[in-house]
Specification:
By secondary structure, the protein is an alpha+beta fold. It is built from ten helices and 17 strands. Helix 8 packs across helix 9. The radius of gyration is 23 Å and the shape is elongated.
Amino acid sequence: AEHGLRFQVLDGFLYPGHTARRMHTLPERTGAALVAALERAATEAGAYLLTRALAREIWTDDDGRVTAVGCERPDGSVDVIGCDVLLLACNGFGGNAAMVGEYLPAMREAVYGGHVGNDGSAIQWGTQLGARLADLGGYQGHGSWATPQGALISWAVMMDGGVQINRDGQRFHDETHGYSEAAVHVLAQPDSVAWNVFDDRTLALARGFPDFVQAEEGQALKTCADVAALAALIGCDPQVLGQTLDSVRPGAPDPLGRRFERTLHAPYHAVKVTGALFHTQGGLDIDAQCRVLDNTGRALPNLLAAGGAARGVSGNDVSGYLSGNGLLSAVAGGHIAAATAAALLGRRLD
C-alpha cells in the first residue's frame, strides 16, 4: 500500500494444493497490471530504467567482484555501466529451446507461454563466474493453454467442477492435483490436446478473469446443447463421453481419485487446450539473502539473484510447484535481494 499497490485476496475458489485462500492479486487480475504498478513504484522511488538496451557482458576484477555491465544498443554500440552490486533478475531459460531440451525434456515439445528474452543468460553468466546451479528440473507448466489462440484458461475452471477430456471422450487425470503437472498429462494425450469441459456456473466464474475473456473473444469457447453436440465437437464416441460425464457427480467412484462435489449440467462449454511451459524454477544457487553461491557454497562478493534467475522454492520437479511460487520468488526474492544490496552498500532500505 505504501507504493500504491493494492493487493486483494483472490476469493471464490481454492487453488490446487492450497488449504486456505492465500493467493493475492491486484484488482485487474493480470500480470501486466502488476508489472506496470511495480514499474511505476520503482520510478517514483527514483530508479532509472534503461530501455532498448540488452545486457551482453559482465566485467569482474581479479577477486571475482562484478565491476560493470555492458549493454548493447539497437545501433550496435555498447554502454558500459559500472556497478557496486549486481542483481540478476532476468528470469529463467524457458525461451532457450536447447536448455529446455537439456534440463526439461518433458517440455521439449511444449508451447512456451513466456517471453523469448528469458534465454538463460543468468545461468550462463553465473556459470562463467563459478556459480553453483540448483533445481534446474523445477518449472511451472500449465495444462490449460487454449489452442490455437495461445491464451491462458484459468484453472479455476477445473477447481469449480470442470473436467479435462481427451480425443477419446475420457478423463485422464485428477484435475485437482494442479495445473503445473497437468501440462505433462495433457501433452501425453492424442495430438497433445484436451478439452476443458464445464457448465454455466463455471462460465460465470471464468469470465471474471481477463485472460479468459480475451480467449472467448478469440472464439476459444464453444457451447454445446447436449452430450451429442459435445461429442461431435471433440470427435469422440457419444456413448463413451456420456459415461464420462455421468461419472462426474458426488459420491461416484473415480479411478483417477477425484472427489466431485457437484454434477455438470447442460449446456456444456468447452475450450480446446494443450500443455505449456510457463516459466522455469531452477537457476543460480543462492543463500537466504539472495547472494549467489559458488561451487563450494560460499557467497560471491557482490552478485545477487532473484526470481527466475535463481533457484526457486519448488524443488527439482514439476510436481513441486504450488500456485504462487513464481511470484513468491520474484516479489519476495526481489525485496530480500534489494535489502541485501543496500546492506552491501552500507545503506538502509526504507
